[in-house]
Design a protein that fits this description.
473 residues, alpha/beta, 6-stranded parallel β-sheet, 17 helices
Amino acid sequence: MECTNAAPSYADHAREFAACASGNPSVTHFAVVAPPFPSHVRAIEALAAPLLARGHRVTWLAPADVRAWLGDRRIGFVPLGAATHPPGSLGRVIARAARPGGPWGLKRVIADMAAATRMLCEELPAALERLGADAVLADEMEAAGALAAQALGLPYVSVACALPVNREPGLPLPVMPWAPAAGDARRQRLLDESERVHDWLMRPLHDRIEQEASRLGLPRRRLLADCLSPLAQLSQTLDAFDFPRQAAPAHLHHLGPWRRASGEEAPLAFPADRPRRHGQPLVFASLGTLQGGRHGLFRRIARACRAEGVQLVVAHCGLLDAGQARSIEAAGADWVTAFVPQRAMLRQADVAITHAGLNTVMDCLESGTPMLALPIAFDQPGAAARIVHSGTGVRHLPALATVGVLRRSLRRLLDEDGFARRAAQLGSGIAAAGGAARGAALIEAALAGHDARPGASAPPAAASPRTAEGVGA
């Protein structure tokens, strides 16, 4: 069977994967390089699972603190950065990323990114050689994986856990809240100016990427997207959810969410003293693994839900204490907890209030749940813009999301069935997109056709179509 990029069903993708694997039976040792954020770890773990099931090896290379986030014991781990990123230091990096504050705080977050890239570029080449890695799975938000792979002549695949960083004229950067220009000259000027501001802010990271590429003997690289793989670029969004692209490379594949098999998900059980009240709308609110500590915002959400007579479940990802949880319940939430089985909860929810992190957005589409997006940072404004563009929800700036604003948006999402219908329409394409199983098939197919000569994995020195990036988690 031919290994193709298009398949109409999950079963076809599974057969494609098996066919590709049978034609390339050798075991490949994959090295993973990714930013130290829990959402990225979970997504790439899911992508790695079918590779591991086929007998391949996967090893994660990262600061020591990342090891605690790995849930699949089949994945090896090599700690890096003992001098610059010692055990116990990651918490401060995560805290700065979760609440960057104003310009000075954002500057520190970008400096953290540049420092991680420097450490990885200095240590990865030797570590990959000692490991005997055959290929690299390189998260698009960390340039070091691609740079080290190119320096060693290893094939690598780019993986986009956040929105893809590919840029083209007329499209906003993935971190921006704008809609496409669509031929509007005034909007195009806005997009151009936002691009200039973004690139000025990201200059410390761009400078670091350029310096490391030069030190490793590579052609000029400056942007994250200068480091994208020429073999395969895998995205966990949907083509129908993303803005329409006119210049996407043929090897950019939208696979839908990378998730563990549904049978591995814990069952959903409401507390006995706070049962699901059938016949009453259910709202689920989560602000993700980095922003889940926003106590004041959750209280406003709870007050709005109480005023609208809906049942509210809040998951804060362990970032609130018991007293804060009780105060949110006092404001109107029915159940406040650290974690719930999110996909199972969304299958019951009538509306999701979300920070518009891509993992949660894809879960909402899968369940056909309309979204009230409150984007906070990273690529969340870009994901929220796509929520509005796709008709699957509404958005507000968190600072402007008063109780009244939240009430009006909740009522609209509950009363206008078009949002849920559109979410279900997009979500119905997730199975056909193929997810992690198709991603594994594409990875094997890309490596099977890879030119193994040293340096063959590197893209040409000339710049590819205009590309962009932003701080992502």
